[in-house]
Amino acid sequence: MYNPSLSGNAGSTSANNRMYVYEITGLRDQSADSSNDKIRISGSQFITVPYRRMQQEMRRIASLGGKILSIRPLASVGEPNPVASTEPAVTPTEAVPVVAATPTPAPAAAPAPAAKKHADVPVNIYRPNAPFVGKCVSNDGLLAEGGIGMVQHVKFDISAGDLRYFEGQSIGIIPPGKDNKGKNHKIRLYSIASTRHGDDIDDKTVSLCVRKLEYKDEKTGKEVEGTCSTFLCNIKPGDDIQITGPTGKEMLLPEDPEATVIMMATGTGIAPFRAYLWRMFKDNERNVNPEYQFKGLAWLVFGVATTPNILYKGELEEIQEKYPDNFKLTYAVSREQKNAEGGKMYIQDRIAENADELWSLVQQEKTHVYICGLKGMETGIDAALTNAAIKSDVKWSEYRSQMKRAGRWHVETY
Questions:
Q1: What is the DSSP letter of 178?
Q2: What dotted CATH number matches 132-247?
Q3: Is 412 a known active-site residue?
Q4: Per annotation, catalytic residue among 191, 207, 229, 334
Q5: Most buried pick, 195, 329, 374, 384, via CB within 10 A?
Q6: What does the buried/exposed string (b/e) look like for 61-71 if buried means 16 or more CB atoms within 10 Å of the residue's CB?
Q7: What is the CATH number of domain 260-413?
Q8: d(Cα 172, Cα 167) in Å, to the nearest integer?
Q9: pLDDT tens across 202-247, in order?
Q10: Is 323 an active-site residue?
């Protein structure tokens, strides 16, 4: 998604007028269905910044929870597409003449191989001002009888366009109609729940896992339904859908078929992990990907409220039964299971139970960790791994930072 920055006053020197492009991920966004919730934007954004405002912009991005992936000189101020620049990317410290704080030495055990670049990943093929118009193919409920709320698996036909995507990316959806100010509704981003070949393995569809957002307005006390999630949960086969994207490189799978992939999800955070597991284990998918035959270990820790809320339960357990040596499945069912203290069983409790084994795995250079779902689980996950790492005289926060730099720690939470 390309977002030009607000322009400041003109500088008096050519250096001050030179423009740079920031690639940013994780910015908080006000376009959530609930006015009280702030959602982290999935994928990268691009912001153009004049040299004189670079430090100011870095502070603003940090205050919004964003992370600067790269800074790239812009060939000319009017260049419309920063991604097309052929100049090499530079780091934030290279771009701005500031004195950096002395970094804390990394623990001896922490590996830091160079992160693999994903130059061939499609991004922003369709933009908000020119979205792709697809059609709904199917809309199926995912909750078993007695499940809480409404969660749907929605599949769209994209065969009429050029939308391509990889597992772990997101697409934007523009709901029809106008907001209360008479403007078009803002884009909502959803993680893709299908492989790059689609659910039918024919390269013609893309699928989403969508929960209908329902909440009580604190000011009025009225029950409110999310605009986009309600639209998607009620969409019918044949209905049109406006799609943008794809976006995101943070949640891409490693190309190594012998990698260890640890996935931690709550609720609809299962979406990208369904795509991973289909690519790894589904027969039809494996048949069309002879270059990628997964032989490593995949471990999914999945947190839900009740057993009927376990999304894709049949698919997950079928894979577990067929590939017991390659796929490990762990549920945390908060309203039915108890943790060690007798309280509700949340995903962080399962992580704590398995912390020593997880710590042993994350120390291997082929291990990637993915977290997707509610942001609140991050604190508990960190606490559990902190306790495990300290047994090896390693400070978990420093080790996790090393994993991030190595491209092995992937988080998309809201």
A1: B
A2: 2.40.30.10
A3: yes
A4: 191
A5: 195
A6: beeeebebbbb
A7: 3.40.50.80
A8: 15
A9: 999 999 999 999 988 888 888 889 999 999 999 999 999 999 999 9
A10: no
